Every structure is written in C-alpha cells, then in structure tokens.
Amino acid sequence: MPWLTHTAKNDVVAQICDRIWLAVVQRTLRPGARLKEEELAEIFGVTRARVRQALVLLEQDGLVSLVPNRGACIAEPSVEEAQDAFSARLLIEQRLVARLCARVTDAQLDQLRDHIARERSAHEMGDSEAVIRLSGEFHMLIARMTEAELLFKILRTLTIRTSLITAMYQTQATQTCGPDEHARILAAIAARDEARACAEMTHHLNHLESALRLSESDRPVSELREALLGAGQRAKTG
Amino acid sequence: MPWLTHTAKNDVVAQICDRIWLAVVQRTLRPGARLKEEELAEIFGVTRARVRQALVLLEQDGLVSLVPNRGACIAEPSVEEAQDAFSARLLIEQRLVARLCARVTDAQLDQLRDHIARERSAHEMGDSEAVIRLSGEFHMLIARMTEAELLFKILRTLTIRTSLITAMYQTQATQTCGPDEHARILAAIAARDEARACAEMTHHLNHLESALRLSESDRPVSELREALLGAGQRAKTG
DNA sequence: TTCAGCCAAATTGTTGACAATTTTGTGCAC
DNA sequence: GTGCACAAAATTGTCAACAATTTGGCTGAA
Are residues A125 and A64 in the same domain? Predict the structure, then answer.
C-alpha cells in the first residue's frame, strides 16, 4: 500500500523503509532519533543485514543520516536544505504537471478524481495516517501518469525529503494540505490548461512550504546551540 | 580524482563504483555485460560484500540493472529512457546555470576558465579518458558552485546515466563534446546573462543528444534479437 | 577539582561459511 | 531427433560469529 516502496516486490527491506518513513511522518520517530541496527532488527524480526540495507536506501533518500562507525539517525535537514528541497520539488512538479496536461486521458482524470474523493473521505474521518499517505500519493500519481520514469523517481525521493521536513518544521496550524488545492490542480489539468496547472501547483507547494517554521524569526529549538544559548543570546547573534 | 565518487572518503566501495563507471564510459564494459560478484571481488581484491554494496549504489544511479537471484549487468537504457535522461538533465542544468548567473563570483569564473583550459589541453593531447572525465566535471563544477546541494546530487546521477547512454548510442562522428561549447556557456555566465546562458546550455545538451543514434531508423544492434535476425529481417520488422 | 589516559561496554563493520535459487548439462522415453 | 525430467554446477542471498571502532566511566596524578 505505501507508495514509498523501493522495489515493487514483497521486499522485506522495502517494508522496513516504509515503516520507518511512516513513523517519521507520523512524528513517532523524531529527527535526530538514533536508529540502532540491533534494535531495529529485533523490532522488525529480521537480521541486522536487512536493516543495514534499508538504512543505506533511506540515506540515499535523505531520510536518515548515516555516519561511518557511528550509526544511523533520522536526518535533521537544515532550513537551507528544506528550502532547497521545496525548490527542487517545485521545479520537477511544474514540469510534470505541464507534461500531463498535454497527454492526460479521460480515464486518468477519473482516476485522479477518484483519488481526491478518497482524500476527502480520509480527511472527514480524521484518519491522519491515510491523509498523509494519500496526499503524497496524489503527487506521485500525477508523476506516474506523465510516464517520465526518471522524473518520477526523482520526485519520489524529493517527496520523502519534504515529508521529513514537514514533520520536522510543521506548526500546529496546518497539519497537511487539504484536498481542495489538489482539486484545483486537477481542474486545471482537466481543462488542459498548462499555465494554470503550473500556477496551481506552484501555489500549492508554496502554501505547503509557507505553513512551516522556516523563517529566521521562529525556528524550532531543534539545534543544540539555539536551544541552550536561550532567548537572551539569540538577540545578539541575530 | 573521479568526480563520480559517492562518499568523499577513501571509500573502497566508491572506488569500485568509479572503476566500473570508467570502464563503461571507455566502452571497455559494454551495456548488457554480466557483472558476476565473485569475479569483481577477485578483480578488485575485496570481498563479495563490498562488490554487492557497490552494485546497489550503481543500480540507484541507473548504471547497472540488478535482478534478484540473477545478478547484475550493465544497464541498457532504451531510447525512451535515453531521451528522458537528457530531458531531465536539461531541466536541471537550465535551472543551475541560471542560478549561477545570479551569484557567480570572479574567483569562480577563474576556476571555470581554468577548467576549460585543462579540457583544451587534454583534448589536444588526445587523452580521451581525461577528456571524458573533465567534460563531465565541468557540469558538476557549475552545479557545485550554485550551492544547491540537492540539484547537484540529482545532476550527478543524471550525468552517470547520460554517460552510459553516450557510450551506448554514440556514433563515430562525435566522441565527446569539445570544450568550445563549454566556453560559450562560460562567456554567458561571465556576462551574467541568464537567458543566454540557458540558451547555450540548452544548445550544448541538445547537441550532445543529437550526436547519438537515438532515432528510430538506425538503432544500435545491441539487442540480441536485432543482432541475430540480421539486416534482411530488420526491413520486415521495421 | 580537573583532565589526561585507559579500560570496559556497546555498537558498527567485516568476513567466510552455508542456504536458496537459477542455469546448465545429461539421459531417458517417445 | 525432440522434448521432458532430473541432477549438477554456478551464482546469488542470508546469516551468525568475529573484528574494529566508538562511547562512557573510572582511576589517578597535577
């Protein structure tokens, strides 16, 4: 079910990746959390070798940072990295949505409509896990429909990155983007209006980013320095 | 020295990756070539585990295809995949070069000039290995200078892909792009002319792609079917 | 008290042997 | 001679024990 899955098969390693990713976006696993191989191995009922493979894959996706001889932990993307990720994602998704406008079929439009309906349903039922999953899946669905395999792959890793970033920098205000903006994107695609679709996608991603604490003024106290120097010092450095 | 290197450290695995990549771009290892783990392990004087790690990384970069229980071989990107790769690379590099125009320093310009000089030198001396390496490095240098870490990473894997594609589909006519087009790109960057820099980069990449046998009419006879049916049959199928 | 040095515990990295799978080769029936 | 079944070889996948590295605490001297 999860869309993150690396290989299509019933791969144990891919399942481990998915579970870790899910724990991160659900904020069960906080950024910086230590990931001990043996512990994970026991949790998932596999050997350490499998866990190790999963960690390597997750590092490639930027979800965990892997330091030689010192183990793995959930990555802590900086504000700059966060902005980079959104910037890259915008570039890719603009291209994807434009491309889809030119080639989308009616069947695909129905599929997208169906997906948004499911998003709405999950939203109303308050199933936050489904909301998160489906929300990401919408973007991946568009990517897959464009049949640009490479951009699809790139977007997959970028989505993983932004998932982590969202989990890390999110405010109480906006947990996830509602399905409404997705609907607007879909409408533009259905109208085969490239410019509008691009604009809606841009708006959507900018909205997503702006709902995070990425400004200088109110960063989260995740960084040790900031946290320990306290508010008094921050005025000086800023 | 090689710019492909995955991790900055003196990582044995990264070296294996580089050696394999180099063998591919030098056409010593042809697409489709079988990569037996034990064989590689013996060649590089390492254990199979290391080779395995390298193969996983190379698969992520699209240089080798890895089939469960059936081993690894040099990937054989289809024409569609080749076009996708160039298309994606164009998208990324346009962005990168535009971004660099806005932030390039004089020192960086000197560095680029110096690089092109080395390209020229290698070109004149007929050192084809250096030409290939430096040619790729020029693009990576631009990417690094923009300080967009993510786009840099993405471009790295795209460059690996296009290296393979070039090796696979290249004609006798153009082995590699000469340093002249790089010089034109640099000139546009030096003039801080975003539009022109983009255009030059676009021209350069299109030139690179158009020098390959990517058209329907004359595909390489890499596929077994094509190769063994012979020219007589090809007329029928085409 | 403080800090360098050192030892012990915990954790990661590596290896080689073993299991599972696929491929290749052989023989038998038809 | 052809096709199928079965066995043997080659190759990949997995594992658990062992080695190397780091971390934290302890001791003892300045």
Answer: no
Size of interface A-B (CB pairs under 8 A): 41
- Chain B residues in contact with chain A using a Cβ-Cβ cutoff of 8 Å: 9, 53, 56, 60, 68, 81, 84-85, 87-88, 91-92, 95, 148-151, 154, 158, 161
Please report whether residue A217 resides in a domain: no
Same domain flag for A155 and A46: no
State which residues form the domain around B22: 12-74
Residue B195 tokens, joined: 């539009």
A84/B158 CB distance under 8 A: no
Region A33-57: mean pLDDT is 95
The pLDDT tens digits of the residues spanning A132-150 come to: 889 999 999 999 999 999 9
CATH number (domain holding residue A111): 1.20.120.530
Put simply, the answer to whether B84 touches A149 (Cβ < 8 Å) is yes
Which nucleotides of chain C does any protein CB come within 7 A of? 11-17, 21-23
Indicate whether A89 and A122 sit together in one domain: yes
Please indicate, yes or no, if residue A48 is contained in any of the structural domains. Answer: yes
Q: What is the pLDDT of residue A198?
A: 97
The predicted-structure confidence for B32-91, as pLDDT tens digits, reads as follows 999 999 999 999 999 999 999 999 999 999 999 999 999 999 999 999 999 999 999 999
Q: Testing the interface with A: which of B50, B89, B144, B150 to mutate, by most A Cβ within 10 A?
A: B150
- Nearest chain A residue to B88 by CA distance is A151
State pLDDT tens for residues B160-192: 999 999 999 988 665 556 778 999 999 999 999
B96 and B169 both lie in a single domain: yes
User: Which of B51, B74, B97 is the C-terminal boundary of a domain?
Assistant: B74
Where does residue A30 fall: left (phi above 0), alpha (psi -120 to 50 degrees), or beta otherwise? Answer: beta
